Amino acid sequence: MKRFILALGMIFAGATAQAEMDIQVIESPGGIKAWLVEEHSIPFVALELRFQGGASLDLVGKRGATNLMVGLLNEGAGDLDARGFVEAAEEIAAQLSYDVGDDTVSVSAQFLTETRDAAVALLRDSIIAPRFDEDAVERVRLQVLSGIRSSENDPDDIAQEAFAHEFYGDHPYGTPLEGTVESVNGLTRDDLIAAHQGVMTRDKVYVSAAGDITAEELGALLDDLLQDLPETGLPLPADLKIETEAGVSVIPFDTPQSVAVFGHAGIERDDPDFFAAYVMNVVFGGGGFEARLMNEVREKRGLTYGVSSYLLPKDHAALYIGRVASANDRIAQAIEVIQAEWAKLAAEGVTEDELRRAKTYLTGAYPLRFDGNRPIARILVGMQMDDLSPDYVKTRNANIEAVTLEDVKRVAADLVQPEALRFIVVGQPEGL
Amino acid sequence: MFKSLFLKLLPLCAALGFPGASSAADDQVTTFTLDNGMEVVVIEDHRAPAVTHMVWYRAGSADEVRGTSGVAHFLEHLLFKGTDTLAPGEFSKTVAEHGGTDNAFTSYDYTAYFQNIAADRLGLMMQMEADRMVNIRLDEEDILTEREVIIEERNQRTENDPGALFREQRNAALYLNHPYGTPIIGWRHEMVTLDLDDALAYYKRFYAPNNAVLVVAGDVTPDEVERLAKEHYGPLKANPDLKPRDRVDEPPHLAERRIMFNDARVSQPYVMRNYLAPERDPGEQETAAALTLLAEVLGGGQTSVLNRKLQFEQEKAVYTSAFYRGQSLDDTEFGLIIVPVPGVSLEEAEAALDQAVAEFMEEGVDADQLSRIKFQLKASQIYARDSVDALARRYGGALTSGLTVEDVQEWPEILQAVTAEDIMDAADLVFDRKNAVTGYLMGEDVQEAQQ
Questions:
Q1: CA separation for the pair B31, B43 (Å, rounded)
Q2: Three-point CA angle B340, B341, B343, nearest 5°
């Protein structure tokens, strides 16, 4: 499941350090918007593109089309076949990568200043003119099928799949974006072309860049790169309301350590209480060793190597979820502890001291994230997708600081619902 | 994200990305040594107001006393459990309160602890890290709870993953005598017996300034780091009893080994071959450089020899790769993998792999491919400057694996100097089946897995 790292933690002006970064909002002559941070000390550029919609745009019966399509973007494009394309990228040391998530197709590129034009020409072909050659389609299809078969025997993947099915039902989020053996075998070249034309369109694209390039140069580059995309494509799916009931479902699987995923409905990214919820989760189940779940399940009882919870606000549904793994004879106890902590959080919120520590952590840690062209470009494109302004990086800390104990208490009472907390356990758990 | 990342548990990763050091970044690097023997590397990058503070010990799982496998990693966990002046958990709590993150990792040849934090908190990090180098305080209860945690960690990383169990079995067969044959996390039956004495014995033997490397990278100056390092690490006493790292050698390998591993949880069978291979040695990195390029030529992605022959031309494989882990104190491994397409048995896959390598030995290195690889290696020095954290890990890892700062800085030029002939000589040297373990990973039903 996609984490929300890009979307969150945008506290720019740290209490302990201040990153000096000038975000330029540009519009190319052809009308493409982008955010840019110029950094000329290293002769390369990191460029990030995001296409909103991603695998959720798969048509009914064509599950896996977007994933297979994205897997083929660098397997032959323009005049070059699959090997020709990769050789050309290697010759100029351009690093091009393509990925797909439930809500986005991501294209990440790093290229040297000295070979920029050639890199952009290659990248353009892969985005605008992928070939979907028969032999490449079959080769990548086999790779995808191999991954699907491996997932069938992976306890984490089994748990995620069951969880998605139960929470999201018939929505595209409800099935793995890779598709099934059957659906992937059924995909034709025409399906891939349709996915490409429907998903990678100008009205869905977000752009950021960081590195050795000026605003003017970037504008010209983007026109060259993206102007020939279709103007518009497939419609985004509908929003979804999540409803769950408390309880534990077990999926038997012969493995020594049970994996459990758990959660219920969450909170939207643009909800006024989102900051309070975010701070609350740092206290409760965020990544640190100090979080309550880590403390109770791991540090005090030694029941797991890792336990965490996180807010997962997808574009069309929001969840509050977590994961834990414990030996089959101990998972029941881990779940009991998590249930008790969930109830305690709902009833009491967090303490003054916990809130203070979470705030100093969040405000201090933020500027540390901007530690290179690549992370900067990734953060900037994520901010745009969340409809934030560049200014946000300067106001974010104040928003975190403004969260009060009462805010957290109110949010905890609303958001955290022991009566809806659903667990899905994969393994051979004892006592469940 | 959790304590202990096993850097070397995934040998495939060793071949990904370019391991070349960055001569373009040399001007960012300053080194010096404290009077107590602690080596210091400073890497400057003033773009963000952040610093990475790392202490690397020249002690890993391969330095454990036999019968206490996993103790190096266990101790790494226990270093978060408090000192004479810090309560259990207070270390990480303090880092977080200052807006930082911290963690640690253990490998065969080193154990390292790090924090990423605002640059003006460097002194505090040094103060705490110096404290736990010599002052840890542990009780039986801490030990027992944390032992449960590392066993759950083993469950998660190894017991729940047939690929990881397979790797353990292959490594154990590859090394007839050397401790690299023992998993970093430990054998389960020994982990469950680890006690306070085991952990403290390891701690006293290896945790001392003259066995440590300090790496500080980010928005700092060498002068400032030197001043702070003298203040916090300077007063620590060197361990006079520290012994040279002479580990046992491998005897001559006289027989090829084959591993047949079945597990019902395997749905994608594959063949993996690991050859014993020489590592990067101080002042003598030429053979390792040639092996590094051999791995790229054979298995470095879409345009590599194995990929072309087995995926594109013969269409027998879903995936192929070659990998080499050059940074290692003692003899390391060179590996080949083939994941067959459905309908191709593991025997056929292995035969096709062998045939492809045999053809390569006849055909030699393609000049265009080699020049592309070398250009990418050069470019990687530019890209590497974007991540000061990765540079810090490069130096820390090298200096605790028997290499020097000079070796790290000369490495890119040594890679550029490798010729096609050097690569073929290295292939001749390493491709000896007597030095190799060939493993089949299969599902429960052998017939079905091989159909």
A1: 9
A2: 105
pLDDT tens digits for range A222-260: 999 999 999 999 999 999 999 999 999 999 999 999 999
Of A56, A95, A195, give the one whose Cα is nearest residue A137. Answer: A195
Identify all chain B residues contacting A112, using CB atoms and an 8 Å cutoff.
Answer: 379, 382
DSSP B26-71: GGGEEEEE-TTS-EEEEEE--SSSEEEEEEEES--GGGSPTT-TTH
Q: Do B98 and A360 touch (CB under 8 A)?
A: yes
Please report the pLDDT score of residue B151 as a whole number: 98
Q: Does A373 touch chain B (CB under 8 A)?
A: yes
Find the DSSP H helices in B329-404. 346-363, 367-384, 388-399
Beta strands in A283-404 (DSSP E): 307-313, 318-327
Alpha-carbon distances, residue A264 vs A168, A322, A343, B146 (angstroms) = 11, 10, 13, 31
The residue of A97, A158, A257, A330 whose CB has the most chain B CBs within 10 angstroms, and thus the best one to mutate to test that interface, is A257
**H helix runs in B248-318, sequence order:** 286-299, 305-306
In B, minimum Cα distance to A289 occurs at B92
DSSP A358: H
Tokens (6 digits) for A81? 């076949």
The kind and range of the H/E element at A70 are helix A65-71
The alpha carbon of residue B192 and the mean position of all alpha carbons in its chain are separated, in whole angstroms, by: 25
- Selection from B318, B301, B324, B329 nearest residue B426 by Cα: B324
B15 pLDDT above the threshold of 80: no
Q: Is B168 a catalytic residue?
A: no
Query: Smallest Cβ distance to B49: which of A18, A90, A152?
Result: A18
The rounded distance, in Å, linking the Cα atoms of B222 and B31 is 8
Residues B96, A357: C-beta atoms closer than 8 Å: yes
Give the whole-angstrom CA distance, residue A359 versus residue B97. 8
B196-218 tens-digit pLDDT: 999 999 999 999 999 999 999 99
Residue A94 near residue A115 (C-beta atoms within 8 A):
yes
Q: Which residue of B lies nearest to A9 if distances are taken between CA atoms?
A: B99
Quote the pTM value.
Answer: 0.92
Query: Which of these, B329, B283, B257, B299, lies nearest to B423 by C-alpha position?
Result: B299
Q: What percent of chain A has pLDDT over 70?
A: 95
Please state, in angstroms and rounded to a whole number, the distance separating the CA atoms of residues A233 and A52: 11
> And the tokens for A295?
């403390």
Distance from B10 to chain A by nearest Cα, in Å? 17
Burial of B237 (0-12, 13-18, 19+ CB in 10 A): exposed
DSSP B103-158: EEEE-SS-EEEEEEEEGGGHHHHHHHHHHHHH-B---HHHHHHHHHHHHHHHIIII
Mean residue pLDDT across chain A: 93
Instruction: Note every long-range contact of A161-168, with CB atoms under 8 Å and residues 24 or more positions apart, other chains counting.
Output: A162/A249, A162/A251, A162/A424, A162/A426, A163/A261, A163/A263, A163/A321, A163/A424, A164/A1, A166/A244, A166/A249, A166/A422, A166/A424, A167/A242, A167/A244, A167/A263, A167/A317, A167/A319, A167/A422, A168/A240, A168/A242, A168/A317
* A chain contacts of residue B218, beta-carbon cutoff 8 Å: 371
Nearest CB neighbour to B48, from listed A254, A362, A370: A370
User: How far from chain centre, in Å, is Cα A358?
Assistant: 23
The SS3 call for residue A312 is strand
Question: Cα A132–A136–A140 angle (5° rounding)?
Answer: 105
**Which pLDDT belongs to residue B20?**
36
Cross-chain Cβ contact A374/B389 below 8 Å: no
The answer to whether A403 and A236 are in contact (CB under 8 A) is no
**Interchain contact, A91 vs B375, CB within 8 Å:** yes
CA B375 to chain centre: 25
Q: ipTM value, please give it.
A: 0.91
* DSSP reduced 3-state for A50: strand
**Token digits for B312?**
């594109």
